[in-house]
Write a structure and sequence with these properties.
heterodimer, A: 275 residues, alpha/beta, Purple Acid Phosphatase, chain A, domain 2, five-stranded mixed beta sheet, B: 205 residues, alpha+beta, Porin, 5 helices
């Protein structure tokens, strides 16, 4: 065998082998890339379309599973999804933030691949870790707006971005107040059985303490009974301010649990589910 | 199918090593005298590898040719990454073995570890002033970029201004990806590995 042939075997073929082995995404230019493949885009919109297709307003009772702060706990997240898939009473899943550890595109990709196994639609709220590096740009490319609302079975859900350290800004309380108003931009309806606000950081956290009273007053003024958050990694649910609002922090799946919000026409109930 | 292709390619590639080993008797001494590099500088140019779409800088080959250190600047344009990215990286390359091919060429498998810092981006090295001390434990702009690869070092003709070149190809990953792979069955090797290639120019005679 001549040297050219040997060089080919020794150098080119291993290169092809390496490329083949890593052909999911053959070349990575930086962990900080923020160029989301077309397939992942508009995920929130796609899931809302799936959700609206299953809207059963004639039967207002439903359950929502909540998994927060999965960070890099992909096994635990997958186990939680598998547990939810084994139930037939969950209408959709909410992820109230910190769906990545460092806001890296590969981390979003890993989350996307795990959540693709979820049988029911899932919706997200951005968390502080998700903003790190170029995470905010990646999040918006995959999921869409940071603040959004949707209705399901006469219940209005309000996803609110209240991260202010990693993305230095004021949380948009003007938008929140508008979203809490009784008129729906989507339907023109003015009545809901419930309104539920979901944001990553609980209002009693030190970084939001200056706005806590204002946030509470908005919730009370608009009849919100449940304020749902993540960030603390531990499940906690309490009407601790005695203002008629139950504040909940959803635990991390690394604690081997998720939360379930049970909705009826006249009640809301949060519970912790171990898996 | 991909696994079968991988197996076939690995088999062919591995057989090449065996053939070369039997052909190389008597060659190493000449190759060593021609290609063993005295302490000297080189210019690396690299495509991909988690340190830039394109990266270049300056490198140094240590005396016994077991180790190379290079400092490179890497750039990823917005058209490629969705956002402009600038990095500076210190790459440590450890030569694992030397496999002479002929009088001009030697094959060198190696392991590398780059310490890569994003500059001018949204990631941070020290905690921003608006965050509480200890809010994040590690610098977000700094990553260790391990790699394994193989380089083909080739001497250039005597009339050239180059002493030699090294063509290299490698598989790279990122520190946190290894951690995720280690703790999670949900993370597959193709999720965390990617390829890169490049060339080292050794100027002078």
């Amino acid at each position: 065998m001549n040297m050219c042939g040997i060089s080919f075997r020794l150098f080119v073929l291993p290169l092809i082998t390496l490329l083949t082995f890593s052909c999911d995404r053959p070349f990575s230019y930086s962990p900080f890339e923020a160029n989301v493949p077309e397939e992942w885009r508009n995920t929130t919109q796609k899931n809302l379309e799936r959700l609206h297709a299953s809207d059963t307003s004639s039967n207002p009772d439903f359950k929502v599973a909540l998994i927060s702060d999965n960070h890099y706990h992909y096994n635990d997240l997958a186990d939680a999804v598998a547990h939810i898939n084994g139930r037939d009473d969950i209408s959709f899943v909410m992820l109230p933030g910190d769906i990545t550890e460092n806001g890296l595109q590969t981390e979003y990709e890993l989350l996307y691949k795990v959540m693709r196994k979820c049988r029911v639609p899932y919706l997200t709220v951005i968390g502080n870790h998700d903003y790190l590096s170029n995470g905010g740009s990646i999040y918006s490319q995959i999921f869409g707006p940071f603040n959004y609302t949707f209705t399901f079975n006469d219940v209005k859900f309000i996803a609110f971005d209240n991260v202010i350290w990693e993305d230095p800004k004021e949380a948009d309380y003007t938008w929140l107040e508008s979203a809490l108003s009784n008129t729906s931009e989507e339907t023109g309806r003015s009545d809901y059985n419930h309104k539920i606000v979901i944001s990553h950081i609980p209002p009693m956290d030190r970084q939001l303490i200056a706005k806590r009273d204002y946030f509470d007053s908005l919730m009370a003024a608009h009849g919100v009974k449940f304020s749902i958050h993540g960030h603390k990694h531990e499940y906690w649910s309490s009407p601790f301010l005695n203002n008629g609002i139950t504040y909940t922090t959803v635990g991390s799946p690394s604690k081997r649990s998720y939360a379930v919000l049970t909705v009826t026409s006249d009640s809301l109930h949060m519970s912790k589910v171990d898996f | 199918m991909k696994g079968l292709l991988l197996l076939i390619l690995l088999t062919i590639a591995t057989s090449g090593f065996g053939i070369n080993a039997s052909d190389s008797s008597g060659v190493p001494k000449f190759v060593e005298s021609q290609l063993k590099l005295r302490p000297q500088l080189f210019v690396p140019i690299q495509f991909a590898g988690n340190i830039g779409w394109f990266s270049t800088g300056i490198g140094y080959s240590a005396k016994r040719d077991l180790y190379q250190l290079s400092f490179v600047y890497g750039y990823v344009p917005e058209q490629v990454a969705g956002i402009d990215i600038h990095t500076v990286t210190a790459r440590n390359i450890f030569h694992l073995y030397r496999l002479p091919l002929n009088e001009q060429s030697v094959l060198i498998p190696y392991a590398a570890a780059g310490v890569s810092l994003e500059v001018g981006g949204r990631s941070f090295f020290t905690l921003p002033d608006n965050m509480s001390p200890g809010y994040y434990g590690f610098p977000k702009s700094l990553h260790l970029i391990p790699a394994i690869g193989c380089k083909l070092r080739r001497a250039t003709p005597r009339r050239s201004n180059l002493k030699g070149v090294e063509l290299f190809a490698e598989v790279t990953t990122v520190d946190v990806y290894i951690w995720y792979k280690t703790i999670s069955r949900e993370v597959r090797m193709p999720d965390i590995l990617s390829a890169s290639a490049g060339i080292h120019f050794f100027p002078g005679r």
